[in-house]
Amino acid sequence: MMVRGVRGATSICEDGQQHVLEETAELVKEMAEKNGLGPDEIVSVLISTTTDISSAFPAKAVRSMPGWEYVPVMCTHEMNVPGSLPLCIRVLMHANTGKSQKEICHVYRNEAVRLRPDLANRSLEGEGAQ
Q1: Has 122 been annotated as catalytic?
Q2: Is 7 annotated as a binding residue?
Q3: Which domain of life does the protein's organism represent (predicted)?
Q4: Segment among 37-51, 68-82, 112-126 with least mean pLDDT
Q5: CATH code, domain with 34
Q6: Could you give the number of structural domains in the chain?
Q7: 4 part of the active site
Q8: Residue 90 annotated in ligand binding
Q9: pLDDT tens-digit profile of 43-73?
């Protein structure tokens, strides 16, 4: 076992508490499921949002998930780079796993697939293989 990073990102259609919390929870659940991880294997979760998201702390969504109450979670804002994807939530999950770096399944949802099409497509290919 060693600590690996699992990346994920999603976008929301507008800044609103319900959108932030629902999309964050769905993204984190999918990241954990696709990598066979439960809350006990999660070391920590770092969540960033673009500066146009300010209606809710995405960490609240993770802490509200059953079994995830004790997982350390932290939020921050992304750099405000001109031309970057708006309304974007990014997640970096650190987890104890026996998987190699290449075996980790990174998850990109909604408009965020544009951030890493190479990894998003690999994730989709893995769905068909199961």
Answers
A1: no
A2: yes
A3: Bacteria
A4: 112-126
A5: 3.30.1330.40
A6: 1
A7: no
A8: yes
A9: 999 999 999 999 999 999 999 999 999 999 9
